[in-house]
């Protein structure tokens, strides 16, 4: 009778689909039980990464300077997301965010130093505004360095951890952004190299991701200043049209996937690396003249 019951249970298509989904189709939780702190996670890349981490089993603390947006994002992402106000230019705020994460979750496995700002400085070095330079470096470089410092403070005794930072393709090639922003992203890649060399001794990995342009709020705000009369949807299309990889565009989810890989044990021996997510954009420079027709050579 038991066997007949089991047989009828498995003849039921719903039972099969439940069994099949549980066994084969559900996404493996690659960050099961992990605790992450992400700066600049109220929107854009940080928010997409927080969502990705949570759907892979992590609990995430969202640290951002935007109080209301950060609270709304945490609410939207559900009970495994918590918001803390944090201005990365204030070392005490970063220190507090790390301590808050420890008091809430008892450990810190992943620190993602993602907060960053753009700037609309004049394109020529001869007109460089050093006050703007200081402001951008304060967020994009000093904020990242302080994040690594305070994450290390708790990860070194743990003898484990994954530290991520957001660099940019503008840190790999000149001419893609204003000097100030480019220089700040070159520095982020440098921070990763330098700190990975020390922190490897404690089992801590340090990596960064260099995204291709994505129309997140900070990029759109900058574009609006450059093209004040163009609608937002057109500005978004202008960014997406820059894509080098045929048939697709770079989206926040692509960066979240890169972050998931680097944060997870899939990257357990990857450290000091800059994962470039640019669809081959920085691999080539198009020739400025049309290629000769092969038949005429
Ligand atoms: P975004 O504007 O959506 O997100 C940036 C977040 O950082 C915002 O929520 C903002 O409130 C927060 N922030 C700004 N200053 C802060 C501070 N002092 N303290 C704490 N939080 C602060 O933009 P995004 O594109 O998601 O940017 C995230 C990171 O990605 C930045 O470091 C940026 O330089 C980098 N990046 C973006 C692109 C792109 O095209 N979008 C490309 C390469 C690199």
Automatic annotation (TrEMBL):
InterPro entries: NAD(P)-bd_dom_sf (IPR036291), Sc_DH/Rdtase_CS (IPR020904), SDR_fam (IPR002347). The keyword NAD applies. Keywords: Lipid metabolism, NAD, Oxidoreductase. One of its GO terms (molecular function) is oxidoreductase activity. GO terms for biological process: lipid metabolic process. The keyword Lipid metabolism applies. It comes from the Eukaryota. Belongs to the short-chain dehydrogenases/reductases (SDR) family. This is Secoisolariciresinol dehydrogenase. It comes from Cucumis sativus (Cucumber).
């Amino acid at each position: 009778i038991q066997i007949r019951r089991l047989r009828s249970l498995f003849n039921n298509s719903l039972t099969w689909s439940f069994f099949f989904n549980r066994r084969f189709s559900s996404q493996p939780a690659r960050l099961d039980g992990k605790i992450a702190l992400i700066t600049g996670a109220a929107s854009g890349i940080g928010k997409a990464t927080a969502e990705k981490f949570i759907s892979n089993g992590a609990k995430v603390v969202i640290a951002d300077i935007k109080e209301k947006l950060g609270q709304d994002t945490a609410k939207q992402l559900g009970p495994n997301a918590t918001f803390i106000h944090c201005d990365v230019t204030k070392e005490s705020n970063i220190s507090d965010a790390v301590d808050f994460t420890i008091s809430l979750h008892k450990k810190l496995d992943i620190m993602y130093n993602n907060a960053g700002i753009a700037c609309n400085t004049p394109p020529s070095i001869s007109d460089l505004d050093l006050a703007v330079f200081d402001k951008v470096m304060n967020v994009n470089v000093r904020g990242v360095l302080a994040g690594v410092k305070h994450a290390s403070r708790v990860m070194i005794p743990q003898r484990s951890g994954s530290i991520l930072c957001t660099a940019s393709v503008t840190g790999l090639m000149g001419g893609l952004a204003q000097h100030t922003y480019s220089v700040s992203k070159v520095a982020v890649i440098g921070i990763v190299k330098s700190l990975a060399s020390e922190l490897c001794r404690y089992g801590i990995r340090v990596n960064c991701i260099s995204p291709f342009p994505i129309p997140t709020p900070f990029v759109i705000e900058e574009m609006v200043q450059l093209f004040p009369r163009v609608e937002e949807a057109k500005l978004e299309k202008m960014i997406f049209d820059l894509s080098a990889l045929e048939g697709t565009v770079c989206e926040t989810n692509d960066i979240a996937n890169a972050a998931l890989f680097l944060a997870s044990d899939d990257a357990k021996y990857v450290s000091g690396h800059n994962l470039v997510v640019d669809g081959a954009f920085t691999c080539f420079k198009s020739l400025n003249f049309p290629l000769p027709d092969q038949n005429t050579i």
